[in-house]
Amino acid sequence: MGKNIFFEPKEPFLLSEIFSELKQKNKIKISDVKILQEASGTDLTFLDSIDYADIAKSTKAAYCLTTEKLKNFLPRTCTPVLVENVLFALCKVTKKLYPSADVDTPDKTIKAPKKSSFLKVKFGNNVLIGKKCKIGRNSFIGSNTIIENNVSIGKNCIIGSQVVIRNSIIGNSVIVQDGCKIGLKGFGFIPLKGKNLRFPHIGRVLIGDNAEIGANCTIDRGSINDTIIGKNTFLDNQVHVAHNTKIGNNCMIAGQVGFAGSSNIGDSVSIGGQAGVSGHLKVGNNAKIGGGSGVVKDVRDGAVVMGYPAVPLRDFLRNLKK
Amino acid sequence: MGKNIFFEPKEPFLLSEIFSELKQKNKIKISDVKILQEASGTDLTFLDSIDYADIAKSTKAAYCLTTEKLKNFLPRTCTPVLVENVLFALCKVTKKLYPSADVDTPDKTIKAPKKSSFLKVKFGNNVLIGKKCKIGRNSFIGSNTIIENNVSIGKNCIIGSQVVIRNSIIGNSVIVQDGCKIGLKGFGFIPLKGKNLRFPHIGRVLIGDNAEIGANCTIDRGSINDTIIGKNTFLDNQVHVAHNTKIGNNCMIAGQVGFAGSSNIGDSVSIGGQAGVSGHLKVGNNAKIGGGSGVVKDVRDGAVVMGYPAVPLRDFLRNLKK
Amino acid sequence: MGKNIFFEPKEPFLLSEIFSELKQKNKIKISDVKILQEASGTDLTFLDSIDYADIAKSTKAAYCLTTEKLKNFLPRTCTPVLVENVLFALCKVTKKLYPSADVDTPDKTIKAPKKSSFLKVKFGNNVLIGKKCKIGRNSFIGSNTIIENNVSIGKNCIIGSQVVIRNSIIGNSVIVQDGCKIGLKGFGFIPLKGKNLRFPHIGRVLIGDNAEIGANCTIDRGSINDTIIGKNTFLDNQVHVAHNTKIGNNCMIAGQVGFAGSSNIGDSVSIGGQAGVSGHLKVGNNAKIGGGSGVVKDVRDGAVVMGYPAVPLRDFLRNLKK
Questions:
Q1: Nearest to B128 among C125, C234, C307 (CB)
Q2: Taking the complete model, does pTM exceed 0.95, yes or no?
Q3: Cβ B216–A218 below 8 Å, yes or no?
Q4: Are residues A89 and A184 part of one domain?
Q5: Domain count, chain B
Q6: pLDDT digits (tens, 9 = 90+) for B46-83
Q7: Which domain holds residue C151?
Q8: What is the tens place of the pLDDT at every residue in C109-128?
Q9: ipTM for the assembly
Q10: Among residues C49, C68, C97, which one ends one of the domains?
Q11: DSSP string covering B111-124
């Protein structure tokens, strides 16, 4: 993931500062929060599902928020921090390090771009650009579009009109059609009566070369992790990609498809219109998901599935005949 | 509902002016149109379904558009006005009182906000505000956003960029993400060949404290009644809330969910992505509706439903095994 | 279809210039690309499905891209050009004639409208209009809206705020609500690893008199053909209409409905919320499609269908009882 140019963590702190009930006696000082495979040094990570047990085994994190039941999957080098609700604890820790990443106040530094700072970039009318943005040559930014601070856009891109992009790194030759909202805070919170606790979103949106994003799509940035759209992957209009979703290369995603978050979609996957993919699933390479399907289980490489819930096409057709 | 600050009715008029065929002989003069439980004085109300018979019994309306079949549910103090098509008649009456509420001509009074009128409010670039808007302190209005006349926004709110809000009353600490369109005329009309008769929409959108509305959502204002989003209720991206829908407090509505209008959703309800809720239904408190479900019947308190059409989760799972 | 005011073809050229493998010996020079029923003179057309065999019989095209299997449906006056992949070949030919129609670079000619050029037209703030646009009297264009070059809008229209319209011809008394994106390039491409080949879109969007388009809808222009919304047809919010879809007159399309493209919807059709219509289908006049349905087969005149996949309502209800 490299250095996070969008969010800077506050000073390292002792976990006991926010978890007074903590059973551990050692004085844990946390400098950052990362996912299992990216944590190291004095980072805290988290493990809240057996699905990630394999990855947990080789984490280099110093500490891990987890439960009594899952703690044995961690290597000896990683100190388990036992809590009742992993996500709630993670939310508290992340908020302590990144206190303003839980809501998206629009960037106050945006203003009309200085032509001298963006050589060979063309701008429509009333474009607003934040501090430290990078835009490659021969790219075009449409009218009324807002690019917030630190966003990076490659060369030969076409960004449409009335678009908002924040916390995102966009490759070369990418097309983003009118009205898209990319890199906004995802839909993550701990439900509480009266005032939900919002989960900070310190991840980014990464869009690969030659990708295309249709009109009025929404692509949320990741919470701890990134949201990724692979190279040469095309999204039709009104697609919703929730936080932490990873879509591979050469995929074809038709109109109004929705991804519930944290799923991992392989390469060369095609998904028909209005289909939905639940959270935390794995869809294999070359899979085909029929229009209107509701995918609630992993899909294997090359599988063709359809239905609600989605089943192999053969089974779907057989069920119809009953 | 209180005084409607967005629409002012024309002069009271005799029903016989628009219903020459009216069987009643008494000279009825109508000053306003309201729903059964809010009508009083010289108001006209309407009753077009037996589902509202209980509420009808205690209406304080002077007059009620209804049918031969339903008229006996009205109290003696309320004069029934018998018509063949209640909604068509209601549309005619409402149009007479509110001739310009059937289409949304964008507010012509909007202009750059005077800083002196909005103390401690922060504005992005190119914000446009209509006459008599109120915005509470520490609220932020994003760039290119349009707030039309008389809209009220509480304190500590964050309204994103490229948003449009009209005919709405928004509480404190509410977040509205980029691209939302709130308070527009709903999808209501009497189908006619050649030129449909549009139903006037004189209702509002009311959004409670601490609510959050995701990117590119659309929330239509009510027709006669209001559309309501309760306190601490969170909507993910691309949700569509049609006219007169009421959503309770502490609800969790995932991405791309749609409400067809006039349904009543309880408190602490959670709805999965892409689910749809038909019109005129009641969903009980603490109900859970699975992603992709199509709800076509009332859902009881605490029920867990799934499927298309949605059934209790147990039945849904059993049907899968067949 | 008449003259295409949005795209001008390049010089006529020999098919052998792009198809070196071409078996035909005659020197074919192509001046334009049109659908079967609109081609004539030196136009090239295409036939890639037996569904269009009847129309093919009377085409006046000089040449037709097709396959060995389908060539016999063409009249003697039309020279078949045999290829393995009709759409791939069509894409190449169209790209040669219209090299810049495969991506939508926002119109660089847009600027604030001169009041003198648009008599009796009202404009909100920050409206941007391209060259040679026509707007009828008493029409209103909302704030931050972009109307690109050559677009034509009739009289008495209300175009909302934050709308983008390009490559479209809009009738009289049409309402387009806030946030719509109309006339953008559709989702058409030949999938290739590394860099998909985008299909040029030289069609338009045609919207009939008295139509209404809800907030945040997306209506893509046609590829070779036009996308058409009939007179007095109403679309609710967040509807997606893909390229080449034809919707008849007096239709009622509820929120979040999606059309996958190239389907032909009759007159007076009503479609419930979140329903989807697959590509290349025919839906008859007066058909009713239930909310949430997935239509994957033709629907006859007056049929009432529901379900996923959609079946006659009677069958849908019977299946529920099993």
A1: C125
A2: yes
A3: yes
A4: no
A5: 2
A6: 999 999 999 999 999 999 999 999 999 999 999 999 99
A7: 115-321
A8: 999 999 899 999 999 999 99
A9: 0.96
A10: C97
A11: BPPPGGGSTT-EE-
